[in-house]
Amino acid sequence: MDKELKAENTKPILISRPVEPLKIQTDKLNAWFGNNHVLKDVSLRIKENHVTAIIGPSGCGKSTLIRCMNRMHELVPQAKVSGAVLLDDANVYAKGVDPVSVRRKIGMVFQKPNPFPTMSVYDNVAAGLKLNGERDHARLDRAVKRSLDLAFLWEEVKHELDKSGSSLSGGQQQRLCIARALAVEPEVLLMDEPCSALDPIATAKIEELITNLKDQYTVVIVTHNMQQAARVSDYTAFLYLGQLIEYGETTNLFENPTEELTERYLTGKFG
Amino acid sequence: MGIPRFSILATTEEAAPAKRAEDKVSDTFFQKLKGFSSDDLFEFLATSIGSLVLVILIVTSVVLTRGSLAVFGKFGFGFLTGTDWNTSLGSESYGALPYILGTLVTAGIAISVGILISLGIAIFLSEMAPSFLRSPLSQVIELLAAVPSVIYGFWGLFVFRFWVRDYLETPLSTYLGWIPAFHGTATGYDILTAGLVLSIMIIPTVSSVSKETMMAVPSSQREAAYSIGATRWEVVKLGVLRYGRSGIFGAAILGLGRAVGETMAVTMVIGGTPGPYVLPTSLLKGGVTLSSLIATEFGDATGLHLSALFGLGIVLFLFALVINIFARLMVWRVFKVTGGIVE
Ligand SMILES: Nc1ncnc2c1ncn2[C@@H]1O[C@H](COP(=O)(O)OP(=O)(O)OP(=O)(O)O)[C@@H](O)[C@H]1O
Ligand SMILES: [Mg+2]
Predict the structure, then answer these.
(1) pLDDT given at position B301
(2) Where are the domains of chain A?
(3) Among B27-41, B163-177, B296-310, where is mean pLDDT lowest?
(4) Shared-domain flag, residues B153 and B37
(5) B66-79 pLDDT tens trace
(6) Is it the case that residue A6 has pLDDT exceeding 80?
(7) Are B93 and B28 members of one domain?
(8) Treating both helix axes as pointing N-terminal to C-terminal, what angle do A170-183 and A137-150 enclose, rounded to 10 degrees?
């Protein structure tokens, strides 16, 4: 509720401003798994209310990069981070910042759909709100409907909200996970290859909903699929061996890459 | 049998043609033997040992049923609901109710206290402990399962009983004595102590099965919980306990099975004598369980008295059987059902 109001109020201001505001900035971000240095001085500026794609060959650190943004990286034993990630100008790695509060503002969707199998569709979506202490049924109902609507799943499950979360198809499960992430009203949604386990029709649905989401959210999507990056994203970052090689508007980057590495990757010379 | 063996050893050219005709029969015998691979042998052995278990089970039930025919013939269903236990010839009278309830109450205490401690241990081992601590600690806990129950009994009788009396029962009877369950004087030689000793005895089983269940929960479930802003404890609750709940339930039932059947340690600390008085109306009273009664009276029982003990045995046997089958089913479900998630 609050969020929608804010979005409406700020719209005119947005139009009058020449530069779009940044939502997330990484500053000289480095990440390690033990001694394996997987991100090297990555400085990336992600624009608010846009979709940013991260592409690059397997193992180049795409997942690690987005997992650093919501402080999921540090959950891996032996994992280390240095540098800064600014969310609206506040460093999420600053002393005293609770990672839990960061993750409530920056939601995440994973490569494999991971709904809670012992919970109903409804409870899956409501899980995050219940963690926040929401007990009011009317408010929960509204939030569940709103999130499932945003995830393009409402029409398919509205009569089966009591069914187990794992009884849905793979594509529906992934949209359920998107709804679950959206229910806590994050500001940013990180998606790590959200379609890689899905068929083309399910993929098309998710791409459509991503495009829809950017009115209200900032979306960062990791993908292996160039066409997908071209279709859904406004900006694209190309990562190679843990370094940010090139970053720019998606159409520019795909049509006139300035770096030779980018061009070779886009034309399928490696990766 | 001597000839076929020879035919194998006789590899020289001239021996072979002469033998050919007469060895037809034994040749096919050998081909059969050769076709009988080590896999087949293993299958045969495994099947026979497996069926042996079944045979033992059937024989046990037959023996128990036959032994208890007399007591059920005399008292019928009343054997299960009666409270008398009079072994003097002429006025014999047997009722199992106090011991059935005694078993249920001690096992109930054991499982409710035991599951809490075991879950704590399992959560620590699977979710919190650094990996260098995990395996040594689990092994120490599993070692507790190897301590003979008479040792637990000794410890219960000479050490633990006094802790229970001083730190638990005295306050309970002083302040909550108006609740019937805490009526009586604190002696530490009663149902509560027996239940608590049992709860300690089932910790190894319950905690290690729960730990395995929790460790089998895919990490994607924990990440799902983290990603919607769960704290560490909420991750355990949402991502781990809920996912593994049927396995954990199974672990608890498995512990219940052990608590129901456990004899020695209980007999040593429960401190009651058979009769209507040991109906477990208060936890601070001496009690008698099915197994402790069988163990104490089996030696000099004859006739109807013996049959009554068989009757207790069959009740106990059924309890244990049902509980264990139930537990196995639950545990087995966890490791089989992945919840239809794309993995
Ligand atoms: N849990 C982990 N423990 C140790 N090393 C890891 C772990 N996860 C990833 N790595 C290493 O970190 C590097 C970057 O991994 P990351 O998952 O970020 O790559 P990616 O670009 O997402 O690859 P993909 O496209 O295959 O998903 C790889 O070299 C990988 O081996
Ligand atoms: Mg990845």
Answers:
(1) 87
(2) 19-114+186-266
(3) B27-41
(4) no
(5) 999 999 999 999 99
(6) no
(7) no
(8) 130
Asked whether residue B23 falls in the same domain as residue B83, the answer is no
Measured from the Cα of A193, ligand 1's closest atom is 27
Encoded tokens for B16: 């072979």
Picking from B131, B228, B239, the nearest residue to A107 by CB comes out as B228
Smallest Cβ–Cβ distance between B229 and the set A100, A109, A114 belongs to: A100
Domain boundary among B21, B56, B72: B72
Cα nearest neighbour of A105 on chain B: B229
Cα separation, B214 vs B244, whole angstroms? 6
For residue A113, report the distance from its CA to the centre of ligand 2, in Å.
Answer: 14
**Lookup: tokens for A216:** 């209200």
Over residues A40-52, the mean pLDDT reads 94
- Contact between B229 and A132 (Cβ < 8 Å): yes
With contact defined as beta carbons under 8 Å apart, do A190 and A128 qualify?
no
Q: Is A34 on the interface with B (CB under 8 A)?
A: no
List beta partners, residue A219: A51, A189
Q: Which ligand is nearest to the CA of A60?
A: 1
* Number of domain units in chain B: 2
Q: Compute the half-sphere exposure of residue B221: CA atoms within 13 Å on the CB side of its CA.
A: 27
CATH number at residue B252: 1.10.3720.10
Q: Which CATH architecture has domain A19-114+186-266?
A: 3-Layer(aba) Sandwich (3.40)
A103 touches chain B (CB under 8 A): yes
**Preferred mutation among B127, B222, B228 to probe A, highest tally of A CBs within 10 A:** B228
DSSP B292-318: HHHHHHGGG--HHHHHHHHHHHHHHHH
Are residue B100 and residue B33 in the same domain, yes or no? no
Is the CB of A118 inside 8 Å of chain B's CB atoms?
yes
pTM of the entire structure?
A: 0.81
Nearest ligand to the C-alpha of residue A56?
1
Structure confidence by residue, pLDDT tens digits, B94-111: 999 999 999 999 999 999
Residue B94 lies in a domain: yes
Using a CB–CB cutoff of 8 Å, tell me whether A169 touches chain B.
no
Is the C-beta atom of A63 inside 6 A of ligand 1? yes
* Residue B235, domain member (yes or no): yes
User: Within 10 Å of residue A47's Cβ, how many Cβ atoms?
Assistant: 17
> How many whole angstroms from B226 Cα to the centroid of ligand 1?
19
- Find the helix or strand (DSSP H, E) in which A270 lies: none
Mean pLDDT confidence for A168-174: 91
Instruction: State the residue range of the domain holding B220.
Output: 78-338
Residues B67 and B15 in one domain: yes
Same domain, B52 and B143: no
Q: Which ligand is nearest to the CA of A224?
A: 1
Residue of the CA atom closest to atom 14 of ligand 1 = A61
Range 182-221 of A in CB contact (< 8 A) with B: 183-184, 197
User: Residue B343 domain-assigned?
Assistant: no
Nearest CB to A166: which of B226, B238, B341? Answer: B341
**Domain finish residue from B72, B90, B105:** B72
Give the DSSP letter of residue B241. I
A112·B220 Cβ contact <8 A: yes
State whether B17 and B124 are in the same domain: no
Max Cα distance, chain B (Å): 101
Q: Is A112 on the interface with B (CB under 8 A)?
A: yes
* pLDDT in the model for residue A71: 95
Same domain as B305, residue B184: yes
B174 part of a folded domain: yes
